[in-house]
Structure formats: C-alpha cells, structure tokens
Amino acid sequence: MNPRRYSCYNVGMNTEAIVSAISTLRAGAAGGEYDIHALIARALHDAGIPFLHEYRLAPRRRIDFFVGGVGVEVKKGRPVRRELVSQLERYLESDELTEIVVVARRAVALPRTICGKRVTAVSLNRLWGVSLP
After folding, report:
1. What is the pTM for the complete model shown?
2. 132 falls within a domain
3. How many domains is the chain partitioned into structurally?
4. Residue 18 lies in a domain
5. Are 79 and 108 in contact, with CB atoms under 8 Å apart?
6. 68 DSSP assignment
7. Beta strand pairing call for 70-75 and 113-114
8. Over its length of 133 residues, how does the chain's per-residue pLDDT go in tens digits?
9. Measured distance CA(12)–CA(117) in Å, rounded
10. Rounded CA separation 88/82 (Å)
C-alpha cells in the first residue's frame, strides 16, 4: 500500500483518535520503518482519519505523518533519547504542529511536553500482546 494514496488534510484532529487508530496495529518484529509507515497509513485510513505522509514542516524538517496539526513520527527500534528529543524540538518549533505522537517499536522515556506542546509516546512492542494459535 502506498501511504500517500490516502492523504488529505484536516485541521483540529483529536489526538486520542489518532492514538486509538495506531493502537490497533500488530506490527511484527521484522520489517523496516517504511513497513510501519504503511501500517499506520492503513490504520489511519481505516479509522477515517485524513493525513498527509512525509509532510514538510520546513527545509530539512519532514514529519512522517501530519494529521490536522498533530505530527506522528515513527522510529523503528529504541531511539536514542537525546537525539529524538532534539529532533522533536526542531519539529515542534513549527507553528503548524500543536503536538506530536511518537511511534516506536521499543519504549523511550520522553518529556510530556516539548516547546510547550504535548508529546505522546506509543510503543509498538506493548501492542503485540500474546498471540495464540
């Protein structure tokens, strides 16, 4: 699936709806970051949440998903906290973002706010749960 296929713009998106849609994901341990992008794009689309993929906030500042003022940034493994916080600061300096959701395979401790804007973390490995045959 091409994540750009379902792109559109909606101002004032509810973060809880975004997190709820992402929480339906069951991303396996294999696969790359763009595989996760495709899963998120499908989850947002299936939930009826319009988005823009690979949205350019400024030169050299491209957020993975832009959902009506909410940014969604995807990280494959467990990101280095210091580097991730620095990246989020650059993104959240943009007036276009009101808050950000960080989706990572492994949990990382993040501040609740950066630049006075809310930060929400979603850990994919916590969504996996137990799979029974």
Report:
1. 0.83
2. no
3. 1
4. yes
5. yes
6. T
7. unpaired
8. 344 433 344 444 588 999 999 988 876 655 678 888 999 999 999 999 999 999 999 998 999 999 999 999 999 877 899 999 999 999 999 999 999 999 988 888 999 999 999 999 998 876 554 343 4
9. 14
10. 10
Cα(104)–Cα(11) distance, integer angstroms: 25
- 20's CB contacts (< 8 A; 6+ apart) are 47
Position 51 scores a pLDDT of 95
Domain that holds residue 7: 3-127
Please check whether residue 9 lies inside any domain of the structure. Answer: yes
87 close to 71: Cβ distance less than 8 angstroms: no
List, in order, residues 6 or more apart from 83 with CB less than 8 Å away: none
Tokens read off for 67: 């959902």
Q: How far apart are CA 13 and CA 50, in angstroms?
A: 9
Could you give the CA distance from residue 126 to residue 73 in angstroms, rounded to a whole number?
A: 17
As a whole number of angstroms, the distance between CA 80 and CA 108 comes to: 8
